[in-house]
Write a structure and sequence with these properties.
Layout (H helix, E strand, L loop, with lengths): L3 H14 L3 E8 L6 E7 L6 H17 L8 E5 L10 H6 L4 E10 L2 E11 L3 E6 L2 E6 L3 E6 L2 H8 L1
Parallel strand pairs: 2-3
Antiparallel strand pairs: 1-2, 4-5, 4-8, 5-6, 6-7
Length: about 160
């Protein structure tokens, strides 16, 4: 039986050769695997041609691991504009971005923050909120995502 980590490593290695980065991998119903969602990060545009090519290549990699083509659905995509932040690398890529954080334990009696990530290290990030810098322990973050207000404001107005 192939482990989730072996699949992740194979995809990651292939993407590195393409100068791309594995942002996230979701194996639905593992170990049966009914659906595989692969989110690819690039500083350049990710278009339909690229995701189609990656989809075929990932299916070849899975076949070589003994996972039969057609036994699962495959989705290859960019992580999106309002992408979730789960790892140190995600926070690092989001420096300078507006984010929304929900905390496990409150900071100064507040559970939710919206601000711009100024910097990040392995344990914490520094969030600019209303001209104040708030130090946030990464382990205290319940969930986080990038906020894209420009689109939402245009839709409302």
């Amino acid at each position: 039986m192939i482990s989730e980590n072996e699949i992740r490593q194979a995809f990651d290695l292939y993407l590195q050769e393409e100068n791309l980065e594995l942002y996230d991998l979701n194996l639905v119903n593992y170990p049966v695997i009914s659906r595989i969602e692969v989110y690819v990060y690039s500083s350049n545009d990710i278009n339909l041609e690229l995701t189609s090519r990656l989809n075929k290549q990932f299916q070849r990699l899975l076949e070589n691991m003994g996972i039969e083509k057609g036994s699962y659905d495959m989705v290859v995509s960019s992580p999106g504009i309002e992408r979730k932040l789960k790892t140190y690398r995600h926070y690092e890529l989001a420096i300078g971005e507006l984010v929304k954080l929900k905390m496990i334990e409150p900071i100064n009696s507040v559970y939710s923050f919206e601000g711009v990530i100024n910097s990040v290290n392995s344990d914490e990030l520094f969030l600019s909120v209303n001209d104040q810098i708030i130090e946030v322990k990464i382990l205290n973050i319940k969930n986080a995502k990038i906020e894209f207000k420009q689109f939402k404001e245009k839709v409302k107005g």
